[in-house]
Amino acid sequence: MDTPSKGAIATGALLAGFPGLDAPARTRAAWQAATAPLIGIAAALGVLTGSSALLAITTMAVVGAAAGYCFAVSLRMAIAGLSVALSLLIAQGLPLDLSDALPALLFSTAGGLLQAAFSLSVYARGTCRWRGAHMGAGAPARPPGAPVWDWRGGIGDLASNLTLRSTSARHALRFGGALASGVAAYWLLGMEEHGFWIPLTILFVMRPQEGETFHRLILRAVGTAFGLVIATALSEWLHDDGVALAVALTVATGFAYGLLTVQYALFTAAITTYAVLLADTLGEPALEAAGQRALATAIGIAIAAAAFLIWANPGEGRAARAGAGKPAPEPRPGRFPG
Description:
This protein has helices at residues 8-16, 25-49, 53-69, 75-92, 101-133, 151-160, 167-189, 197-205, 210-238, 242-259, 264-281, 286-310, 318-322. With 338 residues, it is mainly α.
């Protein structure tokens, strides 16, 4: 496997790990299997559009808007949409040839399906244990569990929010526009190496509610600063020790998964540590990568804030920004349970 896109296997597995992250194994496997092909398609689109500023900006606007609209259904559906948009974003930021589009699609999908297979194996093992503990007459044939999703309810939610009076619809347009602006920014600034970190910041901080978005902007800034300190310190300490750096990357990834639904600032610190250490292993000085990360994060935060300053939700605005230090309530679980 000498194709430059072979890393898409690991990337697909990483991105597919986010949908259903906190769900039971059966539900998690279903979400990961359903999202994997979409992640692969987005990766191929990223390869095909990444060499053209106009195509990259337009594609990101469309896919970003679709991802943002997923909030109309549920938080879990939104995370799946964000994972697909993230696949596009990463692929656009990599120096790949058009011939890598098909391998990127196949490898990304394969990585996502491997993640789903692992979750399914966890479910199968748990089912065997459950059956062993519930043998006997009158025992149910399978462990209890809620349905993975409700298609009719989800489609109904999407249809009922097709109006600019809907927070979800406004978020979809605002989100797609902000992501496209982030892509345009790194093209205009000539940030070839890590420009995609600008829309990456926007993707992780923007939410339908202004108060929650500004709260996440603060956490992103704090977490990034903390992660940059950790990453540069580890880079200086480990210095060219490949095994130790691999262990550090693994630990950082584990913390990122574990902290995603716990505390956003800590998640940001972990994923920033991972990003800077990864750049270091690829030959870029850690201090240089840290500086690029800081600049990209600052620009992304500015674009996300400007998006709400320009087009706020009805009833939001000054009051929301005044309470930016307080987290907004989490979106309702929605029609796609588990």
